[in-house]
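Q: Predict the assembly, please.
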Amino acid sequence: MKTEDVVLGILNEKSQTGYDIVEKIKTIFSHFFDGSYGSIYPVLHKLENKGKVTKKIIVQEGKPNKNLYSITESGREEFNKYLRSPVQTEVMKSDFLMRLYHGEYLPEEQIKQIIIEEINRKEQLVEELESQFEVWKEDMSSYQKLCCQIGIESYRSEIEILKKFQGH
Amino acid sequence: MKTEDVVLGILNEKSQTGYDIVEKIKTIFSHFFDGSYGSIYPVLHKLENKGKVTKKIIVQEGKPNKNLYSITESGREEFNKYLRSPVQTEVMKSDFLMRLYHGEYLPEEQIKQIIIEEINRKEQLVEELESQFEVWKEDMSSYQKLCCQIGIESYRSEIEILKKFQGH
DNA sequence: AGGTTCATGTAACTCGTTACATGATTCA
DNA sequence: TGAATCATGTAACGAGTTACATGAACCT
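A: Predicted assembly structure:
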């Protein structure tokens, strides 16, 4: 999965600005994809050069101009090619588990603290995903909702596992 | 968490070759870190130039020479600095969830197939982690074992979640 | 007065992947 | 005979992060 495919997928739903795309990625995609302005804007320019998207400048009053991007026929073809390509294996990068792995080199109190913080962090992620789900759900397909629900349940399971191991 | 810190952490346990380090990453670190020869060998050279590790060439009969790397005092300091730095948030990249999100653009049969394949993949990951755990557990601290167990349980929970949602 | 939201962008840098190159030994 | 294991490495490319730059409107 390339960032280009992700952006095409988002634009395949409807025309949006780079700002909108980043917002979507930071909220409902947060549990399975990562992206920022520094990665999304250049990708949009690249897709425009390749003719996969088109840009329309929207002049606004009291706000900066918007670049509204729309997917082209060629972009749709590219996206469909992605959808039919083999699914790549998941990649997880967890600094938390790396610390835990090396737990013997830290005082026990500190490890306990790290675990508590990770539980708190995940509890907050559940809350955020749930509230984001409420915000977006009207416009979501059943698959998209499923995807959110899997995220919420995954976080909850992780929390349970950590709590179970908390007292050794 | 930088790859340099990860390599220092592995060498902090004992002196090893680049090959050994990659093997460890590909087996017991697989659920929380990703690395390959193309990333680990250059990092080892970089750490050597910085004086964080030293290299000893071991001549073998019937096998290629080995470069045995050991952590230096300066490397230990660096590693301890990492251990005491703030824990970075986890990052997950899941092509599977991306496909599921766009499920409406694929035939239902294909989505079902993708879910089945993901369940199979994760069942295999559980098996692999369990067998790796058996291989390495003699040399593992209780924290390292905990880390493996969390991986196994996380995969199992993911499988349960997917099975639950399988029939919609 | 200060923080947040909306809105876009780039330059420099760091990092990682992919593909290639080599080559003996061991196992099926 | 062919695949896997052991063992190291690099060049070219592609991708992503960080930090910077701008600036009005709106909310507290």
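Chain A touches chain B through 56 residues (CB under 8 Å). Chain A has two domains: 3-83, 95-165.
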